[in-house]
């Protein structure tokens, strides 16, 4: 069949990871070749081993996932052909390598286990009936998975930034310093004014208290004047109090 499997071109979360990748689900490509009892398989092979892959004559000869390290290929995602109809309520993508449980179990059903290396890989769809293969698609282009980065290769130093970013950061830092200085100055002035107001109020209170309680020294009282009858020409004179 002329159909070529491919990774979806649209943005998709986890489209290609270190152990999985997504494929578009083909529609109507097997209708003229399939019966209702037929199934569609996905063949996964290392790119350099796809040319030597041979379709299995029966389901019993399908290469399992656990033989990938030695045979460099396996078959998985066995699905009824009706699921590849565009009217079928099926997800628009297939995810290869997302079954982490089956790799540790010795099961006879097809395993869709995580891919062990970045590849590259090639895939194709294979239609199989009761008597073996009936139709197949072309091989996909090589698919390379993401590589996990070793912690030892991560540069701990920050990356260099553009001059514009550095200038903006410097301006923001300067504005922050000026703002902090202004706030501290205002708080200091307010505190200083409060202290000065407190000192002035105390001094005024003390001064008023001193003026209120100060008693000036008493002045000597003037001696009373007394007039006595004297011989003419002498007039009045001050009488002194008798000596004690």
TrEMBL record:
InterPro entries: Uroplakin-3. The chain crosses the membrane at residues 164-189. GO terms for cellular component: membrane. Keywords: Membrane, Transmembrane, Transmembrane helix. It comes from the Eukaryota. This is UPK3B protein. It comes from Serilophus lunatus. The gene is Upk3b.
């Amino acid at each position: 069949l002329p159909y070529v499997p491919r990774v979806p071109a649209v943005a998709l979360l986890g489209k290609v990871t270190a152990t999985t990748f997504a494929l578009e689900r083909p529609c109507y490509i097997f209708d003229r070749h399939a019966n209702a009892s037929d199934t569609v398989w996905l063949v996964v092979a290392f790119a350099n081993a796809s040319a030597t892959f041979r379709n299995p004559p029966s389901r019993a000869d399908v290469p399992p996932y656990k033989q990938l390290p030695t045979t460099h290929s396996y078959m998985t995602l066995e699905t009824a052909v009706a699921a590849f109809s565009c009217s079928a309520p099926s997800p628009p993508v297939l995810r290869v390598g997302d079954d982490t449980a089956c790799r540790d179990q010795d099961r006879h059903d097809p395993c869709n286990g995580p891919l062990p290396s970045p590849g590259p890989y090639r895939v194709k769809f294979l239609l199989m009936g009761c008597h073996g293969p009936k139709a197949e698609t072309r091989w996909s282009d090589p698919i390379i998975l993401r590589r996990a980065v070793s912690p030892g290769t991560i540069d701990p130093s920050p990356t260099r930034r553009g001059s514009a970013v550095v200038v903006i950061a410097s301006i923001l830092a300067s504005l922050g310093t000026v703002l902090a200085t202004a706030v501290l100055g205002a708080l200091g002035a307010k505190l200083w004014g409060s202290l000065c107001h407190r000192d002035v109020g105390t001094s005024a209170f003390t001064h008023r208290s001193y003026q209120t309680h100060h008693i000036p020294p008493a002045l000597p009282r003037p001696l009373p004047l007394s007039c006595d009858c004297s011989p003419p020409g002498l007039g009045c004179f001050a009488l002194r109090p008798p000596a004690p």
